[in-house]
Write a structure and sequence with these properties.
The chain is of the alpha+beta class. Helices cover about 45% and strands about 15% of the residues. It contains 33 helices and 16 strands. It is globular, with a radius of gyration of 33 Å. The N and C termini lie far apart (about 90 Å).
Length: about 725
């Protein structure tokens, strides 16, 4: 006990030191802490120094001799940049006096996806791709910036993109770069005239501007792609006559009752009104021609990737939940091939009284998996007869100019961070639904295992089907593979400032960890390790294939097997100890997990990693779940808190272990002691021992009971024999 108390005291001192260091670090700006570590020329070619950091906001001039090239700042000083690891992604950005991004450099991050799977060069290339970004165009909604997603690092890239754009706009506006600080709403202000009503047929509505139109011919589209200067695109030019209609796209704002009722009809407008929440607006988009403005991307990913609404510095991407099909009742409307309603959420900041545009993205295939893109705009502005001018506000008397710090403080950073993780969750609605269904089915199977385990065939095929779904869908398709890195990041977050935002950035991982926490109380670690771990599923499915092919199976002698169990616990404790000093180093050492290679990157990795993962899978062909049994630090990390399990669902007979060894011999991970006890730290809840518990052909206890029942049934007098009993009277017919 004194040794244990001494170890706990040391651990407490380490945690206190980490908290103190974090508090001291927070007193200075992130830029001040890291600026000396970056060579100016690495940020922007030709730069040779940084000027002093300003007193009002953490921004430093970027110098070339005595010339100021631009202004450098760290994104983390202005916006939340918490990534997948739970720690901020520090990105240094330089912008020019005319509000263009000069350079971007990733300075400090703890992203496990980057550190132990995806080459640093890929993330560096993403950051460098922001050079030249026009912030004035970004604020006006006319930028051609596209998010460059790196496969396997979606969350990280989205955080980097969000932080660069929002922090750059904040700094540019605070310093008045590119005229952004001078942007004021000095134009006329309007409100909707509820009494205005659209009158006339469709051509009339087109003529007065109630309906707006974008018509493109194949000739115009070919010219637009030719302007890109890509010879591959020119080689695939449309061959139709130049005057052929490529797309005729028309739009009308139908959330206004005076427009929506004449266009949709009373009944359909009533349905629309019920669908919209307070403050929502809706636009009807219709089209005909060769090209679809909807495409098919929304079917797979839930996002209409060919259109977006842009107004000033806001943009709205439409998702499947914001979409409904519609019919137009106005006389003279064309026979559109597509007629759809799109909801504009109230929290988007959209103002129906101000001009906006629908941007159409047109793509052209230039290779097997490569495309080039160009965009066209359909401008929309409500005609004046639907608007009522509002009086201009009285100018304030000699207002004092707000300081840059006050300008930056205007935006609610917490809301911006919440919007990011909510956007990620909305984009993964299908994945979340499928995972919740899988968890519900598995929970039901555990609760009703007494009934399910009565059929060996039912348990086998249910398990094989579920593991296949886990591997293919959760693992290879959606990368929902938990890792010991998650445990270390969680523990580190308690020492450096816990934030739910960091863990909400990955919906599937968040839900899985929530489910694992609940399962530890009910069933132990087996619920995840035995059913929901993609790499575990891969091992077991390969072993099943190996059995069918006749590969011999080996069970290690109990003494050796029992002494190999602790190896995974030693690996886990070693990694956890290193993480207290350096989470980054621990994440690198966590490469002992082959999950990134086999599941996330699907073996598309350097050969040493592939050989290591393949070697473990090869061992698993002969010793089932070899990695899970002896090496997995995640399994060890889950087994330790699983000791709090409150229920024992696995039934046993008194004869189990003495003399019967059937379950112990058939347990594929050897989690049953020769004395009959099940080791909950090693059990994967496969239900096989429960199948044996009910087996009429394998369990000696059940077989003995069956024989006893058969003997009693044979010795019982037949029912017909009662008629000859002397005390039984019979009646004649």
């Amino acid at each position: 006990m004194p040794v244990l108390r001494r170890l706990l005291s040391i651990l407490a001192l380490v945690l206190a030191a980490l908290v103190t260091a974090q508090a001291q670090a927070q007193q200075s700006s992130v830029l001040a802490r890291y600026l000396d570590e970056v060579a100016p020329a690495d940020l922007v070619a030709g730069a040779d120094g940084f000027g002093p950091i300003r007193d009002d906001i953490p921004v430093a001039p970027l110098l070339s001799g005595a010339e100021t090239l631009g202004y450098a700042f760290m994104t983390s000083d202005f916006v939340g940049t918490t990534g997948y690891s739970g720690k901020p992604i520090h990105t240094l950005v330089a912008i020019s006096p005319d509000a263009k991004v000069l350079g971007v450099k990733l300075v400090k991050h703890s992203e496990p996806i980057v550190l132990i799977g995806i080459p640093e060069a890929k993330m560096t290339a993403v950051a460098e791709g922001y050079a030249g970004l026009d912030l004035v165009a970004e604020a006006a909604g006319t930028s051609s910036h596209e998010l460059d997603i790196v496969s396997g690092a979606t969350v990280t890239v989205m955080v980097i993109d969000d932080s660069i754009l929002r922090s750059s706009l904040k700094v540019a506006r605070a310093l008045g770069l590119g005229g952004l600080a001078e942007e004021q709403d000095t134009g006329p202000r309007f409100e909707i005239d509820a009494a205005a009503v659209a009158e006339g047929d469709w051509d009339t509505l087109l003529g007065d501007g109630t309906v707006r139109r974008l018509t493109l011919t194949t000739g115009e589209v070919n010219e637009a792609f030719a302007a890109l200067g890509d010879p591959r695109s020119d080689a695939r030019a449309l061959s139709d006559p130049p005057e052929t209609v490529f797309i005729d796209m028309q739009a009308v704002l139908v959330s206004l009752p005076g427009i929506g009722r004449p266009v949709l009809g009373d009944a359909e407008f009533g349905n629309l009104d019920d669908w919209l929440e307070d403050g929502d607006e809706a636009v009807l988009i219709a089209g005909l021609g060769q090209y679809s403005f909807k495409g098919s991307g929304y079917v797979r990913g839930g996002i209409f990737d060919r259109i977006q609404l842009i107004q000033d510095d806001i943009s709205v991407r439409f998702r499947d939940r914001d979409h409904r099909r519609a019919e137009i009742v106005t006389d003279g409307a064309p026979d559109f091939s597509e007629t759809d309603l799109f909801r504009i959420p109230a929290d988007s900041g959209f103002d129906p009284t101000r001009p906006f545009r629908i941007q159409l993205l047109v793509h052209r295939d230039v290779a097997a998996i490569e495309k080039v893109f160009t965009t066209f705009d359909l401008g929309y502005e409500l005609p004046e007869n639907y608007l009522i001018p509002l009086p201009s506000p009285e100018p304030a008397a000699a207002p004092s100019a707000p300081s840059p710090a006050e300008t930056i403080a205007v935006q609610d950073e917490a809301s911006a961070q919440a919007a990011l993780w909510k956007r990620i969750w909305e984009g993964k609605k299908l994945q979340v639904t499928v995972l919740v269904v899988m968890l519900s089915v598995l929970t039901a199977a555990f609760f009703f295992q007494e009934w399910l385990s009565r059929s060996e065939r039912a348990v086998y095929w249910f398990r094989m089907s579920f593991l296949t779904l886990t591997l293919v869908v959760l693992g290879w398709m959606w990368n929902a593979q938990l890792s010991v890195v998650n445990i270390m990041a969680l523990a580190n977050s308690f020492a450096t400032g816990f934030s739910w935002q960091a863990f909400l950035l990955d919906p599937l991982t968040f839900i899985l960890w929530f489910a694992v926490a609940a399962a530890l109380i009910f069933w132990g670690r087996g619920a995840y390790c035995g059913w929901l771990c993609p790499f575990g599923a891969l091992q077991e499915l390969l072993n099943q294939i190996g059995r069918k092919l006749g590969i011999p199976q080996y069970s290690l002698p109990w003494g050796l097997h029992e002494r190999l169990w602790p190896v995974k616990y030693m690996i886990f404790l070693g990694l956890f100890g290193v993480s207290l000093a350096s989470l980054e180093q621990a994440e690198r050492l966590a490469e002992v997990e082959p999950f990134k290679t086999a599941i996330i990157l699907k073996f598309a990795r350097a050969w040493p990693f592939v050989v290591y993962a393949a070697g473990l899978l090869m061992a698993g062909l002969f010793v089932e779940r070899f990695y899970c049994r002896y090496l997995c630090p995640l399994g060890a990390g889950l087994a330790i808190p699983a000791r709090i399990r409150m229920f024992d669902w696995l039934k046993r007979y008194n004869e189990c272990g003495n003399p019967c060894q059937t379950c112990a011999n058939e347990c594929f991970v050897q989690a049953i002691h020769p004395t009959g006890e099940i080791n909950p730290n090693e059990c994967l809840n496969c239900m096989h021992c429960q199948v044996l518990y009910h087996s009429h052909s394998k369990c000696p206890v059940v077989i003995k009971q069956d024989k006893r029942r058969a003997k009693l049934a044979a010795s019982a007098p037949p029912r017909d024999g009662l008629a000859n009993h002397p005390n039984v009277k019979t009646e004649g017919v």
